[in-house]
Amino acid sequence: MSSLDSDFQDAIDVIQRDADHLYHESGINHYVTLECQPPPGRQGATCYPYTPLVTSPVAMADWGETTSWPHIVPDLSLPPPGHSEPTQFYPVMQLSRSRKGRKKLRLFEYLHEALHDANMVDSIQWTDRGSGTFHFVSKNKEKLAECWGRRKGNRKTMTYQKMARALRNYSRTGEIVKVRRKLTYQFNPAILQRLGTGHLAPPAGHSVGHMPRETLGSHQHSVSADMGYYAPSGSEWQVWYGQHSSAYQAEYDLATVLTSADGSKI
DNA sequence: TTAGATGGGATGTACA
DNA sequence: TTGTACATCCCATCTA
């Protein structure tokens, strides 16, 4: 790449960062058309000019109808009835992060945005919008990753592999979990809801976005003290899932059988 | 057997 | 300056 291109890219990066900061500062998830457009002469993915995101809840599926969220279904590690183990806490997922001033666009926000962009359907698509399940298109997943990398202002080219790694990190917090299907992931219902699409609500009196610790990975070492928490009991989970889909129970049962069979966590 | 997908530890970076 | 959260790198393992 010529130095001219490099300088141009640097300028783009600066503009992007400022723009991101400006827009997120105001709490509006709007995106700059300038981003993702390759500089003159730069080869690469044909990133899309951003199409204003329409987040009308009407257009979105109802979580209560088809939602499947098997990955957060409690498994055998749930305490037995009456068990009084110390309460386990789960972080509240909030787009406006608990860390004040954290305004950077996050990957799951970008993916959500891409899912609503007609120009990106060849890279990422809903598998089941109702359940928040989406998948990458194998042929063009790298394109999406490159767009993400440029969006972040990375010097190096983002790859699907790296992007997927970041996605897997989300499984620790429950924002996005991996589905046992090729190139397929699933949004946390609360994340979808906060992004303006989901309707699924947690049990009455509880805030949204909490997942059983078992689903958060093996080492959820620390949780910010300034996050909100909700500590559902096993029975609450079952009530919740039972309310929203009978499939939950079936999947819960299946998960139970599977975990019983191999003695491992899901 | 192999390419692609996935998992996870180590490390880098931004921010309060 | 330091701690934390998150992103990225890199390599091992899994799977179709």
From TrEMBL:
GO terms for cellular component: nucleus. It comes from the Eukaryota. It is found in: Nucleus. GO terms for molecular function: DNA-binding transcription factor activity, RNA polymerase II-specific; sequence-specific DNA binding. Residues 105-188 form the ETS domain. GO terms for biological process: cell differentiation. Keywords: DNA-binding, Nucleus. Belongs to the ETS family. This is ETS domain-containing protein. It comes from Alosa alosa.
